[in-house]
Amino acid sequence: MEIRYVDFSDKDFWFSLDKHLSPEAFASKVKDRCGYVLTVNGQPAGLLRYNLFWDNTPFCTMLYIDERFQHQGYGKCLMAHWENDMKAKGYGMLLTSTQVDEDAQHFYRKLGYRDCGGMVIDIPGYEQPMEMFLIKAIA
Question: For a tag on the chain, would you pick the N or C end, based on fewer CB atoms within 10 A?
Fold first, then answer.
């Protein structure tokens, strides 16, 4: 297993899993080193991307492991890698989020994240279940 920063050569794999990011935003993730690709035996298996909430707090905006590699600990490895990278860069806390109807909330809690609020999006055409936010101290 290897985890490295996303590169332009990862574009096809990235967009096979991430249906929410624009090509321009992908280019920014590569340039700003705000994304990682996990490989298993040289084969791309997962990704994590983040941005800075309030321009100063790392916020994991997507963690996705290809179905063939799920439930094998790779998501936990990607999160640990990101957390260590953010700590090395001097950050003291992290944020992430998930919809309340998704199982990811249980995964994040097992990693030490705790609930810290939510947001309801009820604008016609954009409705979704409540987005819950989770926080973790890493300092």
Answer: C
Token reading at 88: 């090395």
Instruction: Check: pTM over 0.85? Answer yes or no.
Output: yes
Is the separation of the CB atoms in 33 and 26 below 8 Å?
no
What string of pLDDT tens digits covers the 139 residues of the chain?
999 999 999 999 999 999 999 999 999 999 999 999 999 999 999 999 999 999 999 999 999 999 999 999 999 999 999 999 999 999 999 999 999 999 999 999 999 999 999 999 999 999 999 999 999 999 8
Could you tell me the two tokens for 85? 């990278």
β-bridge pairing 57-65 and 93-99: parallel
Instruction: Give the distance from CA 35 to its chain's centroid.
Output: 8
Q: Do the Cβ atoms of 13 and 51 come closer than 8 Å?
A: no
